[in-house]
Amino acid sequence: MRIRLAGVVVAVWCLALAGEAFAHHGFNVEFDGSKCMDLKGTLTGVLWENPHAYLDMNVQDASGKPVVWHLEMITPNALKRNGTTRQDFTANIGKIMNARACPAKVQTESDQRGAAEYIKLADGILRIVGQLPERGITPDKLNF
Amino acid sequence: MAGVKRRLACCAVIAAGVCIVGFPVLAQRGGGQGRGAGAQTAAPAQQGAKPPVKIAGDFDKVKILEQGGATPRARDGHPDLSGRYYPNHAGRMLQGAYRIPEPIMRQFDPEKTPQENPVFRPEAIAKYQHPTPYGSCPPGGTPTSITTQATEHGPLEIVQVPGRVWLLTEFPQTIRMVPTDGRPHSPDPDTSFNGDSVGRWEGDTLVIDTVAIDTRMRNISVGRTGDSNAWLHSEKEHVIERFTRTSKNYLIYQLTVEDPEVLVKPFTSAPHVWTLAQDPNDVWTEYICSANEEPEVYKNLDQKTKEEYEKSGRDAATQSGRQGGRGR
Lengths: 144, 328
What we know:
The complex is a heterodimer.
Chain A: H1 2-18, E1 37-47, E2 54-60, E3 66-72, H2 76-81, H3 86-90, E4 96-103, E5 112-120, E6 125-128
Chain B: H1 2-15, E1 39-42, E2 53-56, E3 83-86, H2 102-105, H3 125-128, H4 144-147, H5 149-152, E4 156-161, E5 164-169, E6 174-179, E7 196-202, E8 205-211, E9 238-245, E10 250-258, E11 267-268, E12 272-276, H6 303-317
């Protein structure tokens, strides 16, 4: 009984954390925080809308085939007030970028979808643009 | 050797005067390194392992805001509450993911001013305890437009003019107009998400009394924070909000919610701190929640996790009042 109660408490705590930041939806329902990955490719677009901004990047998969990743970010108002503007993206379109992102649990047919945690555009500034489900991945541990 | 390196790195971090507990990698390197606007530097975990990287957000400059001087006064002698405020001690929008130290991030210190969670009537939990439906953008209302900023971290703007006060929030995008000219509640008010509000001054505190709140309005972050702990209310919900500007930079907000059909006793929050926005370039931003990932994405959700999310608030409600608030 004690174990069951502890499990409920932990589950509630995790879900509360998942919905903690700029929640329009929780993280765990859509994205898999256990399969986050490093992506390197070319920034091809930005969508500056509420409740989520998105970026698109072209990434080559293992076979060399280009794949479009559509990455969700937090809201424009929070991005802007925390040092990341729409203009930061448009100034770096077509340039190399890095992202640490977690894939959607269920992918769409058209492209790969995920939630960005950290990104680094060609300007070299590290940007925290999403929730951080990987508690152990801090800026110093990123591979970019 | 690796252990020595780790200790050296740790000493370097401490020597740099890091006060960002819990997220030491946000330690700022020495000044004069030509950081760009809105950027700070992160020290690598091991000296020399990587060049430092700039992090957007100027979070190395975040600190507990000073009081800023005396409370401004309006011509009628009452405090002038006008200004844009953020739900933290920093006077700016913060982002939970940055792991800002709790004394800066939180709205109250649970050790000094503990907050008991709402105590729900057991028979009311099934009817009224409903997390915000997954992925929806429900309208705000009283008091949710203000209290939900505990997780949204967005601004509350107050515009005070003789005889009325306007309360504005970005998300949920809400406009509340509260008469402060001494009029009573309407004898037969229409229900609305904002409800029927009237304000009065008790000394230097503006007290806003609200009734006739639409029962579709969810109480979000009233007690436990977050959408999963949202709860509905009966037609008897009565909200009393107290606004006290204790100095130029600090506004204290305290909330009482009465609802005898849902709560065993009235819920009164801790005094919550809001601080005045310091950046003159921090302008109002439109935030109309358009749920812009629909409809394609929502057909493909993880239904099991979704159901767990929507059940979680009700599980928490069964533990009403057994633990204190989280402080934000």
